[in-house]
Amino acid sequence: MRVAIFSAFDTVLNPYILLFKETLERQGLEVHLEREFNLKWLLSKGKSCDCIHLHWIKHSYSPPKNNDKSKFLKKLIEIRIVRIFLDLFCLIEFALTFLFAKLAGKTIVFTVHDLFKSGKQSLRGRMQVRMARYVVFLLSDSIHVHNHHSRKLIRAIYKRKSGISVIPHGNYIGYYPNQVSKTEARLRLGLPGDAFVYLFLGLLRPYKGLEDLFEAFETLEWPGARLLVAGQVFGVDSYESRLLDLTRSNSKIMLVPEFIVDEAIQLYMNACDVFVLPYKDITTSGAAALALSFGRPIIAPAITSFPEVITSEVGILYDTSQPNGLVSALREARTRSWSESKIFDYAHQFDWDKLGPQFAALYTKHDGRRQ
After folding, report:
1. Are residues 217 and 282 in the same domain?
2. pLDDT by residue (tens digit) across 164-176?
3. How far apart are CA 110 and CA 69, in angstroms?
4. Alpha-carbon span 233 to 231, nearest angstrom
5. Which CATH number covers residue 301?
């Protein structure tokens, strides 16, 4: 069976797609990575696959961003009515591509990574996303979600009742180097050896609650505590300046607003005692999978899918309705005894080879009975 996987997400930022591809290949499938799901691809390469698997789809129904456009075209696109028609055209092309692929007998699978786009969005933008997702949820043979919370939302909002498979997010054990000790990691990062270190590592985005984390950390007032925040600022031009302003006056907060290469991830992960994810909303957390893959306990809000992933043995869930919920979790983490070996054992249930047969089963034609 030949599978074409579509994802415009940079595999350098997140190797999820590469790991997904490799596990399918170990199941005996022929897999190709593609970027743009559109009519041009379907007409030129569509015959080369039996199954189409869509992941992040925004680039498939949004006008392409091309910096090489002439000044005239750039000004033309800035006109509101032109932009509306361009958005509508791209959405229609996306729907037609989906329909023609179905008529051509392709099995279509969609993996849900983000059900709701965070951040500010125009009414037109929200409508475009909603309409594109209605097309996907209506016409896909199978829907793959990483947790039961997402399945419930899809059933409630998009009225898709069947053909939704829950297969958890795979871990990253073995993908990133992991040979550096805690002592060496702290030495190389300039952290005190006897400090209690909280870590946030990942793309720095407004919806991830970093401002709340900084405020909660300030409330702790522990001389021996350190907060390490590292990752590339993504999507908002002014956000890096805001983060720098919030952390500049506190020497116990180390902010590294830059892309962390694969070889350096082990420094940050092994230097920390606890991994903190103070998200305001989330559909699927690859960062949680990363923390478990390094045997690190997690602090996260008891919202959306986190209660399905984080047990009392591997982390702490806090109540966001409580004003000091995050502060209390930060304090509790310091008093708990965590077993790195038990966290690793827990993470191994998400080994890709264990999930592989379930992923391969997604390409079986949906018969209306699978849940």
Report:
1. yes
2. 999 999 999 999 9
3. 32
4. 6
5. 3.40.50.2000
